[in-house]
Amino acid sequence: xxxxxxxxxxxxxxxxxxxxxVHAERNSSDTRKHAEVVGDFIHGCIxxxxxxxxxxxxxxxxxxxxxxxxxxxxxxxxxxxxFGAGVPVLPVVTHDAIALGETExxxxxxxxxxxxxxxxxxxxxDAAGLPVRVAGPALAPASExxxxxxxxxxxxxxxxxxxxxxxxxxxxxxxREHNRPFAGEEALYLRSPDITLSAGPKRVTA
Amino acid sequence: xxxxxxxxxxxSPLSGQLPANTTNPLVLGIETSCDxxxxxxxxxxxxxANVISSSMDEHARYGGVVPEVAARAHLEAMQPALEQALAxxxxxxxxxxxxxxTSGPGLAGALMVGVAAAKALAVxxxxxxxxxxxLVGHVGADVLRDDGTEIELPTIALLVSGGHTxxxxxxxxxxxxxxxxxxxxxxxxxxxxxxxRLLGLPYPGGPHIDRVAVGGNPKAIRFPRGLxxxxxxxxHRYDFSFSGLKTSVARWVEREQDAGTDFSIADVAASFRExxxxxxxxxxxxxxxxxxxxxLLLGGGVVAxxxxxxxxxxxxxxxxxxxxxxxxxxxxxxxxxIAALGAQLIMAxxxxxxxxFSADSTLPVTQIQA
Lengths: 206, 370
Ligand SMILES: [Zn+2]
Fold this sequence. Notes:
The structure holds two protein chains of two kinds. Chain A is of the alpha/beta class. Chain A has helices at 34-49, 68-85, 94-98, 145-148, 165-177, and strands spanning 2-6, 11-16, 22-28, 58-62, 89-92, 105-111, 116-125, 131-141, 156-159. Chain A contains five helices and nine strands. In chain B, strands 3-2-1-4-5 form a five-stranded mixed beta sheet, with helices on both faces. The longest helix of chain B has 27 residues, at 265-291. The site of zinc ion (ZN) has 7 residues of chain B, from α4.
């Protein structure tokens, strides 16, 4: 069984078996309480599933894209849990999990705050049932989404999709089964840190 | 599929149950309140490992800690630092009696990384988790000194870094800490960084101010001592303010530059540093005298400043106050002090924290455990 954790939007934690059966899932749409709830969610899922830590063979981490403060909470939780349990971390692109099972061309757009969207486009799924990402993930102003996404009209828009950790786990099982690469180790912040670079000391006297 | 081998568990089973070993517990501490990812391991009052991964170099070009840069660095440093600390201590994760983590005060985004990591690690290993106060952790570091002399309480503690400037009275490490005063604007370490910048010196400011102050005359320029005037002392007897001092230094430098004077940077640095250190120790010693507590403990990164230690020795000797300064590696932010405070809590039979605590950027010192 796999434990999956995603904090790219709210907080979602799930335990899923290789057949895709969801043994436990806990979700919160609160975008400010990731660090507060993630421990109880992980523990609660293990309790709900009635399994032991030793039954988990890997920890799926949603690497985003997502707003940075929350996103890394799930990633560090996945890494720390995997370290503690002695199992591998399986990083996946969160948008790929949202697109899982889609057969039509779609564009996934998730809230990046600051009047921007994270987006990815998919040309349905391949023979293995894995989503075929054609562009993204990338960041675009909300008002310019159509102009920013190549061939926008070709895709059906999937916005406000809740991120379900169970879908991350299902995606990870498929990737593993078909020997496909997992996502990279980098968190998909897609934004540089907020830094106010100063041009040097400001005068205090006129 | 579903197994029945594991009994049903309450929402936070790790709480309410003391670690098996409460006399000499093996504790791993996680600290991410500012720009150091610190992982420390202690056994009771004995230090086994103190690994610090700092993102200081990444902040250098900005002249101060950039919270988002620090938080990103914590994410990347967490697992390597955990591995290194366990290797240095020569212990296995499974041997730990408990995990401790800083839950505040500090930079919110940075704290969250440590809090989430600690919770996940605690659930994965089944270890009890102690969420502790960063500032009290600085005091807790003193139990780890290897000369074996035990910290005597009550003590006044002066904690000075780039993130905080606080004066505490500690009557009991695990149950009775009082905040006497703190900075009402910049932390002392921040003042060092800002003045270093206006003197064209690199970040972090403290060591560079120290370097150029050598040979400078600390009495050359009388910079203001914030909140020491009679009118302030009523309300802010133990509080600090460094933003006026910083502005005053800037004004002085600008005036000299505008006049084309060839002023001595050494004198400016030495005079500025003297103003900071004078205020810090005047207030700390006053607290010791007022409260009848003849002991002063220093903590925080600014303790690395040679003049702070020197003047502390002088003033304490004059006033008959016993001065304690933990080793420098335990004064700057680190995970060992968090582990040490966690061990103190366990040895005092305090129950673990429940899993639902949050990262609290303004956690008061009276809340030693969250
Ligand atoms: Zn500190």
